[in-house]
Amino acid sequence: MGRVIGIDLGTTNSCVAVMENGQPTVIPNAGGYKTTPSMFAISQDGKRLVGHLAKRQAITNARNTVYASKRLIGRRFDAPEVQKAIDLCPYEIVRGPNDDPRVRIGEKTFTCPELSALILREMKRVAEEHLGEPVRDAVITVPAYFNDTQRQCTKDAGKIAGLEVLRIINEPTAAALAYGFGKKREEKIAVYDLGGGTFDISILELGSGVLEVLATGGNTFLGGEDFDRRLVAHLLERFQEAEGIDLRADAMALQRLKDAAEKAKCDLSTRDVTEINLPFVASDARGPRHLNLEVTRETLEGLVDDIVRQTIKIVESCLNDAGLTREQIDQVVLVGGQTRMPLVQNLVTELFGKRPHKGVNPDEVVAVGAAIQGEALLSEDKNLLLLDVTPLSLGIATFGGHFAKLIERNTTVPVRKGHIFTTTRDNQSAVKIRVLQGESETASENDLLGEFVLSGIRPARKGEPEIEVSFDIDANGIVSVSARDLATGKEQSIQVNATGTLSDEEIQRIIDENELYEVQLKE
Amino acid sequence: MQLGGQGSGEARVPQLAPGCDPARLPLSPAEGYLLSRIDGRTPWSLLRQIGGLPAGEVDRCLERWVSEGVLVVDGSASKPNPRPSKEEEGSAAERPAAEAAPGAAQASSGSLPTDESLEIPVEAQERILEFEKRLKRPYHEILGVPVNADMKAVKRAYFELSKEYHPDRYFRRKIGPFAPLLARIFKRVVEAYELLSDPATRAEVQRNAVEPPSPAAAAANEKAPAERKKKLPPLHLHAPQLRALAERKAKAKGFFETGMAAFKQGRWREAAASVRLAIAFDPWNEAVKEAFGEVQYKANEERAEQLLKEANANLDLRRVAEALPLFEEALHYRPQDPEVNHTTARLAWLAADDLKKAKEYATRACELRPEVSSYRRTLGQIYKAAGLIANARRELEAALRIDPKDAEAKQELRSLPKK
């Protein structure tokens, strides 16, 4: 059996871990860093750069450097999230043939799974160098709120990177696995995950080597980058007040400001005041202008207070979903670099009435959990079992355009559930079963996964026939749906396959193409 | 499969052999009745008492059926047994399959052989096969906990079973036909856990589990055996039915809460309508029924008030004919109000000349408040109008006894024809 790696494919940074002698180990990259920026660039001379190399030249090569592509993966080009990214990002986002967003760098257009694959391949390489052997199997993490398409795209990315993806698991679940590893206690755990791009909260229960997900919640558009953006806007304003120059249209200055804001934000987690120094950030008739500003922790906290409070609201509703009060939570685990901020820690402490757990590194814990799950799946002696849940509700469209949920989100998988439906017209001989995924009560606002018709229903008055519709989800998340007329025993069923935005041929083409590059890099 | 049973006579539990269709047996009605008592839970000794035949005859019948292969007998069903027993096979085949499971699994009860070439220990294979046999048992037995186990025990059992039967335990291993089996088991375990840990369904599941098809209840609605077979209550309701029941109750709860909110705000009629809906959705809830009494009373009061107001307004306008039906309707909601009875009596007499009704209302008023002279006087006057002089005299005299100064009564008495 080869080694299985756990990869935290983050919006801003990625991390890889492996089990060594029964203990999870985070693998440092060649530069000695335990996390790698999720960045990809093509340099001026046509070289492909990933991670720290890409980040180091990001300022001077902004248009050809891709970051935070995780925000785009598995979405439609017209989605508001993508449109927002188009406004904010210095790189070019174009519409792909499947209505998916793609990134154009020079002549070449990259699909989102391809961009993620470039990061995954880098993490795979880091692991292989460390282990001195080829790696094939991996567990990759995604935000709890990723839908089927986003998960499938992430799987496709793994395939393109030459990985066999054993399982996609949720980031907060992975964090809880890392926390719960080797613990025999019975505990209820809250994982508060404030990363670069997303906020996730999960409530889990640990008992005798089993970890059960009770509820998850979150916001896919709330994260550390919003903190940065607030601070950048604040700095822009102050610079304009002092110098009368608007830097908003200046891509280079913006990138420098963004980097400086991120660094200042981090500084302010340990200090009360920090200085931002950007020499020659602009120039006008008076000559070169320098940005030189002092920012206090208080200022920063004032700028982002409402964002943090928004997360607290989400935590409260998730607790409600889990049917627990805040006092019943035994342990709070913080994940994501943004949880280093004292304001975040204070509000979380205040909410739960206890200080968060200190034993895990918020940047590495997710990758560690992924490695633990990989090992748990493949190892002989099972000392940890994860009872994972469905991230989104599943059901069928019913009369009047409503959505009848058969499997609520947060239901443990594998699972089978059925419900009895009936006809809406006299002598109706067939019913159409439209399988949907989502949380809206209105059928049309959810994703259509598939549809089929059950015919041959015996003529009867409306409301009399009994049609049992059953949903079945296996451990790998594959959904099958069947409908049975209880009177005649007639049955129809389909298997609903999650689809990414790429076809199998397209994935193969990209794999072949990337192998070419692999050869190039080794030259 | 053991025939004849290994238990002592008292505890032996006969049940229908798998695949046996009792409708095809040449039975007398009495034998059919006896066969219909056999549910896999009632022990032989009890069948002697409830079988509808003399005990010796019951023994003879049962023994004959066992020897003919119609029945199988096991001694272990009287107490819930965490270890699956042979009897499962019979009962599983008796009931229609609840799930359309992968083909192999359905037919596999006891027939799927263990296989040493699979990447799954033989002991584990045996445990899986045994567990599969009890998938049709009540939910608490699937989890292996007492029927009234608390949430903690339910969860602990669920975790322990998960560790053993979750498909991830054999991730990527060659386990052949055990893969679908394992999935089926785990889904059933999850179902049991969910239903027993959700307060909305828990009570229903428990109630179902502790109410085995009772011989006494079954005897009450006696039918021919073939027909009866269909009517036998299932050992436990299936999950969709339980959920539907829970939904109904949740709906009822919603209506009840709406009703009580309206009640608190004094909107009695609205409250009564909501509570009535709550009863329709959850007719088993005694608390709701109790509350309904009070709500209904208040709602009636409200309606009566409204009617009386309208009626009096008509009276003020001297629209006596319109007032009468309103008073009568008000009486429907407030039959015990003496004053309303009295007024209605006078109207029925004076406006409609309906002396029969007038007498009824006036009598009711007098019964409710015998000490009021004016009610007696009215009743007397109505009798007089009806020509029942003796009665009229009696009532008018009674009125005068209560109030000797009642001038009207005196005058009415004087106007009566002499005896």
What are the key terms here?
heterodimer, A: 523 residues, alpha+beta, six-stranded mixed β-sheet, five-stranded mixed β-sheet, 11 helices, 27 strands, B: 419 residues, mainly alpha, Outer Surface Protein A, domain 3, Helix Hairpins, 4 domains, two-stranded antiparallel sheet, 21 helices, 64% helix, disordered N terminus
List the helices and strands and how they pair.
The complex is a heterodimer of chains A (523) and B (419).
Chain A: E1 4-9, E2 13-20, E3 23-26, E4 36-37, E5 39-42, E6 48-50, H1 52-56, E7 65-67, H2 80-88, E8 92-95, E9 101-105, E10 108-111, H3 112-131, E11 137-142, H4 148-160, E12 164-170, H5 171-180, E13 187-194, E14 199-207, E15 210-219, H6 224-243, H7 251-267, E16 273-284, E17 287-296, H8 297-322, E18 331-335, H9 342-352, H10 365-378, E19 385-387, E20 394-398, E21 402-407, E22 415-421, E23 431-437, E24 447-454, E25 467-473, E26 479-485, E27 491-496, H11 504-522
Parallel strand pairs in A: 1-11, 11-12, 13-18, 15-19
Antiparallel strand pairs in A: 1-2, 2-3, 2-4, 5-6, 5-7, 8-9, 9-10, 13-14, 14-15, 16-17, 20-21, 20-23, 22-25, 23-24, 25-26, 26-27
Helix pairs in contact in A: 3-4, 5-10, 6-7, 6-8, 8-9
Chain B: E1 13-16, H1 29-37, H2 44-50, H3 55-68, E2 71-74, H4 87-94, H5 103-107, H6 122-133, H7 139-143, H8 151-165, H9 178-197, H10 199-210, H11 215-220, H12 225-231, H13 239-264, H14 268-281, H15 286-316, H16 320-333, H17 338-350, H18 355-368, H19 373-386, H20 389-402, H21 407-415
Antiparallel strand pairs in B: 1-2
Low-confidence stretches of chain B: 1-8, 76-109, 211-236
Overall 3D geometry of chain B? elongated
Global structural class of chain A: alpha+beta
- How many strand elements of chain A? 27
Largest β-sheet summary of chain A? 6 strands, mixed
Kindly report the spatial arrangement of strands forming the biggest sheet of chain B: 1-2
Which two chains form the greatest contact, residue counts included? A-B, 30 and 24 residues
Mean pLDDT of chain A: 89
Distance between the termini of chain A: 31 Å
Shape-level CATH architecture of the largest domain in chain B: Orthogonal Bundle
At CATH level 3, the topology of the largest domain in chain B is: Helix Hairpins
